[in-house]
């Protein structure tokens, strides 16, 4: 079996392949479109959990998976945040945590690219979970018009942005030294 065709890698790639369907839901004018996007997003979140579980439980961790999984997460979170803010599903002030999250993802991608040995922090797993929970809540609130779920989602967006800053600083402290020469 090819390293690319392991169950964890297939689950990871499915997240990326499902993103156009997530986006499509935003262009369907009826409430069905938002529910469709919500279900696709939730399925992507489940595959994120399952790919990690299968990789560890069945010792199917691969180098390609170590690159694809965080990349798929970054793409999923980034596109989702762009759409929930761009379509006004969150209050305008939520552009602040959204921007923090997007900037952190770009910075850490650069750090990851230049690090010799980049290990994921447990805090980053909490960050991803908080982001996925925030986005899911915002999508459910937009689909169902339940204001308390929207408030919860926006609070989680702020919490996840704080976690993003803390974990981002931890990564930079560990992997970036300004006094090192090339």
Tally of DSSP β-strands: 0
- The number of distinct helices, counting runs of at least 4 residues, comes to 6
CATH class: Mainly Alpha
Structure class:
mainly alpha
Please state roughly what percent of the residues sit in beta strands, choosing from under 5%, 5-15%, 15-25%, 25-35%, 35-45% or over 45%. under 5%
Q: Can you lay out the helices and strands and say which pair or pack?
A:
Blueprint: H1 7-26, H2 31-57, H3 63-86, H4 95-114, H5 122-144, H6 147-175
Helix pairs in contact: 1-2, 1-3, 2-3, 2-5, 3-4, 3-5, 4-6, 5-6
Q: Features of this protein?
A:
mainly alpha; 6 helices; Four Helix Bundle (Hemerythrin (Met), subunit A); 79% helix; 0% strand; 182 residues
Structure description:
With 182 residues, this protein is an all-alpha fold. The protein has one domain: Four Helix Bundle (Hemerythrin (Met), subunit A), CATH 1.20.120. It contains six helices and no strands. The protein has helices at residues 7-26, 31-57, 63-86, 95-114, 122-144, 147-175. The longest helix has 29 residues, at 147-175. The protein is globular. It starts with 6 loop residues before the first helix and ends in a 7-residue tail after the last helix. The model has no long low-confidence stretch (mean pLDDT 91).
């Amino acid at each position: 079996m090819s390293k690319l065709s392991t169950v964890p890698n297939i689950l990871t790639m499915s997240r990326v392949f499902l993103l156009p369907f997530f986006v499509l839901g935003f262009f369907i004018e009826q409430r069905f479109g938002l529910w469709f996007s919500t279900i696709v997003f939730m399925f992507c979140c489940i595959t994120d959990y399952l790919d990690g579980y299968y990789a560890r439980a069945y010792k199917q961790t691969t180098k390609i998976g170590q690159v694809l999984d965080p990349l798929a997460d970054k793409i999923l979170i980034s596109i989702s945040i762009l759409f929930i803010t761009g379509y006004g599903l969150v209050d305008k002030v939520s552009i602040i945590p959204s921007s923090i999250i997007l900037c952190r993802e770009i910075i850490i991608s650069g750090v990851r690219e230049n690090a010799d040995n980049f290990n994921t922090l447990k805090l980053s797993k909490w960050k991803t979970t908080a982001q996925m929970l925030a986005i899911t809540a915002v999508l459910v609130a937009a689909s169902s018009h339940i204001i308390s779920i929207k408030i919860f989602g926006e609070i989680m967006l702020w919490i996840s942005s704080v976690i993003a800053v803390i974990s981002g600083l931890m990564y930079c402290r560990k992997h970036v030294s300004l006094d090192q020469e090339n």
